[in-house]
Amino acid sequence: MDVLNVHHNFFATQKTKDIAFRKAALRRLQKEIVAREDEICDALYADFKKPRFETLAAETQFVLAEIKTQLKNIGYWSRPERVSSILANWPTADFLFPEPYGNVLLIAPWNYPFQLVFAPLAGAVAAGNTVVVKPSELTPNTSKISSEIINKVFEEGHVSIVEGGLEVSQQLLNQKWDYIFFTGSTKVGKIVYEHAAKNLTPVTLELGGKNPCIVDATANIGLSAKRIAWGKFLNAGQTCIASDYILVHHKVKSRFIEALKKHIEASFGDVAVPSEHLARIINQKNYQRLKSLLEDQNVIYGGITIDQENYISPTIIDEPTLESPLMQDEIFGPILPIIGYETEEEIERYVSHYEKPLATYVFSRKKSFQKKILTKYSFGGGAINDTVIQITNKKLPFGGVGASGVGGYHGKSSFDTFSNKKGIIKKANWLDVPLRYPPYKVPDFILKRFKHLF
Ligand code: NAD
């Protein structure tokens, strides 16, 4: 029997409708992650030398915080939510009744291979769904431990994991799911959307984009450079919300570049020697892609590559042209282009050149400038005077817009994402106003005031 059938049968038992069942499963998951946290760090290190600090902070502890939030609120979020009634229906009680969609397919990428499986999984399970996970084929060690955890923690048919590459992914996508949650590239996101459309399956698509980071002349240059360098070189730039390119005011550009270099050296030492605090590029294919982006560019810092190690050092490129390969697609590596601007029209020329990004950052002391950027441009989320940290607050839905994605999740948004909210009106029997029944007798002058009853 194929995996979806097993999940169908499991969902039909109604077991997942029981809040105590969901909580017990999440508690087992929590316990297993805590028990195997060191092994998880080792797996990510084996996959692409991800530093232990980054795995603990951005993978295991991030996921544990998400599970904790779901566990704490699941009872409250799953209760019918009362909304006010309208006079026309009086007397009624009106409410939203959340139900799980059913069988969820969750497809994950390689860059945060643990977080991007288990954080959405926690929300899907909390909301009462069954889940089939397809992790990335590029992180086999993390997939192996994820598979062991899932097989140990969840009952058969509740949560399963199917390992494999794009053929497996396509086989799964050819089936009829109740919900598809996909994290990955915009290119594959479009394929997923097409499959989902055939069955009108609702989706969340967590995609990528070219995220601008704007630094104006009033910004605190030292601190800005430090926070930008941190967010960019975390996971060796293989972060969907990392700054893709910097637009910095000409007046402060050289000071900004010097501060960036200083912070890179303080973080990683001599970049000619691969640092243990910097992850490697995931595979040869991506390494070669990034290496080729350095060709014919004005490399003003770094640019060191070591083939056997898939190592690309933190690198700064000065003034790439909009037409150069570096400025076509999301870079997704430790290469940071810096572009000087003089006027706000120049900022617009760059930002509007690309599809709506997943994130945008603005560094400025001027409130009017901060507000202008937030108001003028459309993007998934972002930060003022920092980068990347918008992902950490569970009260902020995380997701893109346009080409960077559809929908959002984390905390309550995850629970809502994986729930269908039925709108229900419960009518009392003790009164039945006869006005709505034929033969219609209500005169026009009263009917034309009906809007006041809604
Ligand atoms: P990817 O799109 O290549 O792969 C993602 C998943 O889709 C993998 O499990 C893969 O096996 C599967 N897949 C690949 N090709 C497929 C196809 N033709 N049909 C069906 N399934 C297919 O992405 P990736 O390289 O693993 O991850 C990097 C991308 O993910 C970047 O673009 C990054 O911005 C994005 N990303 C987004 C977020 C977010 O939260 N928005 C988070 C992390 C990564």
UniProtKB/TrEMBL annotation:
Which family does the record claim for this protein?
Answer: Belongs to the aldehyde dehydrogenase family.
What Pfam families does the record point to? Aldedh
Active-site residues annotated for this sequence: 206
Keyword Oxidoreductase recorded: yes
PANTHER family reported for this sequence? ALDEHYDE DEHYDROGENASE (PTHR43570), ALDEHYDE DEHYDROGENASE TYPE III, ISOFORM Q (PTHR43570:SF16)
Q: Which keywords does UniProt give here? A: Oxidoreductase
Q: Which organism is it from?
A: Flagellimonas spongiicola
Protein's UniProt name = Aldehyde dehydrogenase
Every copy of the Aldehyde dehydrogenase domain together lies at 15-422
CDD domains recorded: ALDH_YwdH-P39616
Question: Please, which domain of life does this record's source organism belong to?
Answer: Bacteria
